[in-house]
Design brief:
CATH superfamily of the largest domain in chain B: Nucleotide-binding domain of ferredoxin-NADP reductase (FNR) module
Shape of chain A: globular
CATH architecture of the largest domain in chain A: 3-Layer(bba) Sandwich
CATH class of the largest domain in chain B: Alpha Beta
CATH topology of the largest domain in chain B: Rossmann fold
Shape of chain B: globular
Distance between the termini of chain A: 51 Å
Strand content of chain B: 25-35%
Number of strands of chain B: 14
CATH class of the largest domain in chain A: Alpha Beta
Largest sheet of chain A: 5 strands, parallel
Number of strands of chain A: 16
Oligomer: heterodimer
Structural class of chain A: alpha/beta
Low-confidence stretches of chain A: none
């Protein structure tokens, strides 16, 4: 995949991956062997008919390709960019290893989706209105996917979004240079073109309540995500220069604080330490780098255990982010502002519950990293507003909503999916959950008539 | 009427305006103590303001705004008929003073307007309500008519003595307490140093105190942690757990430090807006 050179891209927020040319796409599509049993498909959380769409790209039938993709995937331009294909479809490709590596299914999906967007092709059909009325809470990938499928089936769907812009993590979480917001808006517009209504500035659990929505609708889907940040709980964490990754990325991605004329402020530290090693930590580190900082990524385990996508880690390294591995923060230093971070060196022992080797502190190995800003990217859990406003909704101690594989909660007519149910995960898993819930909502509605 | 339209605008003092905004969804369930977050335009910053009054009949919410930064100055340049880009709420938890019977509401500066919903509510419940309002000078004493109508006793005090009474709200509270007044709760809202001073006094006097924290915010719904503060040694979010907290448990020094995070950047913006 052609990409901007590292020394150039750290000075801009433009997309890093440049996309296939038609020649590159044709060449990659040629590599697909069209395996009869399509092992790649079983890796796709939304069941895209992969060999089929690749075949059409081969034949130059771009409209056909996007039609195949969009019958299962409502947001292909997004998925083509952010899905961890290496753990999903591409993982099962027979070409992996000896046959030159997996077919770049994600890049091809992106190629087709971008083509459709640039040529304004929308060929999904919408059934006649069937009288079903559904309210969807949140406007991230789970909700957009659910709403899109419901609208196509003929339902009257309204999506309620707490922020002033729809998209959820797609707008506030994933940076511009990985997922351009103009593109996210176009994908959202295409969902709206199916007949979905999106109402922003409505916080369900504060502005409106689920009880009201259940009264006025045949079903309600909760796709409110997992937006509550986790902190280190160490001394100094409340100094002004310490951000949760959510706050940092929201200021930069949603509020566009990277722009010189932005009204939303953000600290532009000279030396930034990011704590964590997931995709969000990479996003935070690469964003801080683009604001001109020397960036250190501090992680208590080693390279092998880093949960971020290999591609993100590589891009981060190319961009000059310094990885301080097997290091754990114990205190953030500073009086009125951050002046440094006290850390301790770690070593790995036996695996813990997550299957990863448990890190132990090496006694006497404390040292300080000089810095003026800290970004904590340790993960998130579901926002408590909804569960606080509806005590009868069954949730786990972590705050995730309890639901079956189709998203049915303990309350009739109420469904949940995505991060609100699983805890923080991926865009595509959320979309898969949204699809399954849409299916269940339609079936349950038919049964109840 | 357009959603988020400015229905009325009233100047209450130099650099202080009251706005009545049409926002029927916000008003549907809102209660005293809650706040909203607004953006003046599509490039605007998200800024929180406490709800000073509301009318479910008219579908409107009133906020009081002091012009001190980019957004508030931009807002002051908008007029009746203009619509805000965004106006979301009601956020935070409503005030809960149910267990108290003799309350003293203390407001400092703009804070005085935001204790009006509590005065209204307590008064309607037949409770004993005294109100202390303090300001730098008499032109900044807000909502005095509204308070006259909803409290048993109104005490006004100014830093410079221009209203005939010189001192801080803490001086007034001390005076009343020494004079035999007994309250089972003090509810204080105002700048952080003022709330800290009130809490230090009421701790000595042994009166339970509730404060409303005006932390910096971005989303206001619990997803970023910007509004975090330490209460009794634990991290709490003003938008999810507050904005009201037990004043004696709040780490005010830390809160004051956090509130200064963008001071430099804000000064620069203001200069641009005012054309300096």
């Amino acid at each position: 995949m052609p990409a901007q050179a590292a020394d150039k891209r750290i000075h801009n927020f433009d997309e890093v991956a440049l996309g296939y040319t038609p020649e590159l796409a044709a060449a990659e599509a040629e590599r697909c062997l069209h395996c009869k049993n399509a092992p790649c498909m079983k890796g796709c959380p939304v069941g895209v008919h992969i060999p089929d769409f690749i075949e059409r790209i081969k034949r130059g039938d771009m409209e056909g390709a996007i039609s195949v993709i969009k019958s299962d995937n409502n947001l292909p331009a997004i998925c083509g960019r952010v899905c961890p294909q290496e753990n999903q479809c591409e993982k099962y490709c027979v070409r992996i290893g000896k046959l030159g590596g997996a077919v770049a299914i994600g890049n091809l999906e992106r190629f087709a989706a971008d083509w459709a967007m640039n040529n304004s092709v929308e060929n999904r059909t919408v059934s006649e209105k069937n009288g079903m009325k559904v309210a969807v809470i949140g406007s991230g990938p789970a909700s957009l996917s659910c709403a899109g499928d419901l609208a196509r089936a003929g339902a009257d769907v309204t999506v309620y979004e707490a922020l002033h812009k729809a998209g959820g993590v797609l707008v506030y979480g994933i940076p511009q240079f990985r997922l351009p917001k103009e593109l996210v808006q176009k994908e959202i517009d295409s969902v709206v073109s199916l007949g979905v209504k999106i109402v922003t500035d409505v916080v369900v659990g504060k502005t409106l309540f689920i009880d009201e929505l259940l009264e006025e609708n045949d079903a309600v889907f909760i796709g409110s995500g997992a937006g509550l940040p986790s902190f280190l709980k160490i001394k100094g964490e409340n100094l002004g220069g310490v951000y949760s990754a959510n706050e940092y990325l929201t200021r930069l991605n949603l509020m566009k604080a990277y722009k010189s004329d932005s009204v939303t402020p953000v600290l532009r530290g000279k030396k930034v330490v990011v704590v964590g090693a997931g995709n969000v930590a990479m996003d935070s580190a690469r964003t801080a780098r683009r604001l001109g900082a020397e960036v250190h990524l501090v992680y208590r385990r080693s390279r092998e255990e880093m949960p971020a996508r290999a591609e993100e880690i590589e891009h981060a390294e190319e961009e000059g982010i310094i990885f301080d591995l097997l290091v754990n923060p114990i205190e953030i230093l500073g009086d009125n502002s951050v002046s440094g971070m006290r850390c301790v060196k770690m070593e790995l022992g036996e695996p813990d519950a997550s299957g990863r080797r448990r890190p132990h502190e090496i006694e006497g190995s404390e040292f300080d990293i000089e810095c003026d800003e800290v970004i904590v990217a340790l993960g998130t859990t579901p926002n408590p507003i909804i569960k606080n406003s509806m005590p009868e909704l069954a949730t786990t101690p972590k705050g995730t909503i309890i639901a079956d594989e189709y998203g049915r909660t303990n309350i009739k007519g109420l469904y949940a999916g995505g991060d609100a149910m699983t805890g923080a995960a991926t865009v595509i898993l959320a979309m898969g959950a949204g699809k399954r819930s849409a299916q269940a909502i339609i079936e349950d509605y038919k049964k109840s008539r | 009427m357009k959603n988020f339209e400015i229905v009325a605008k009233r100047q209450l003092a130099e650099n202080v305006h009251e706005y009545e905004i049409y926002a029927p969804l916000v008003v549907k369930h809102c209660l005293a103590g809650q706040f909203i977050i607004l953006r003046t335009d599509d490039e605007g910053e998200r800024v929180p303001f406490t709800i000073c009054d509301y009318s479910r009949e008219n579908g409107t919410v009133r906020i009081l705004v002091q012009e001190i930064g980019y957004t508030t100055v931009k807002l002051s340049q908008m007029n009746v008929g203009d619509a805000l880009a965004d106006f979301v709420g009601p956020l935070g938890n409503p005030t809960d003073l149910k267990e108290f019977k003799r309350v003293c509401l203390v407001g400092g500066g703009i804070g005085s307007a935001v204790i009006y919903p509590q005065a209204k509510q307590l008064h309607s419940e037949g409770k004993s309500v005294d109100v202390i309002v303090g300001a730098r000078n008499k032109s900044l004493l807000m909502y005095t008519d509204e308070f006259e109508r909803t409290c048993d006793n109104l005490y006004l005090i100014t830093d410079d003595g221009s209203n005939g009474n010189k001192g801080f709200v803490t001086d007034m509270l001390k005076r009343l307490s020494e004079g035999g007044k007994s309250y089972d709760c003090v509810f204080a809202v105002g700048p952080l140093p003022m709330m800290r001073a009130v809490c230090n006094l009421t701790k000595e006097l042994g009166i339970k105190t509730v404060v409303s924290m005006n932390s910096l915010m971005v989303d206001g719904t619990g997803m970023c942690g910007c509004c975090r503060l330490t209460v009794d040694g634990e991290i709490k979010y003003a938008c999810i757990d507050g904005p009201e907290f037990d004043g004696h448990s709040v780490d005010f020094d830390e809160a004051i430090l956090r509130s200064r995070t963008y001071r430099e950047q804000e000064q620069a913006h203001l200069c641009n807006l005012r054309g300096r």
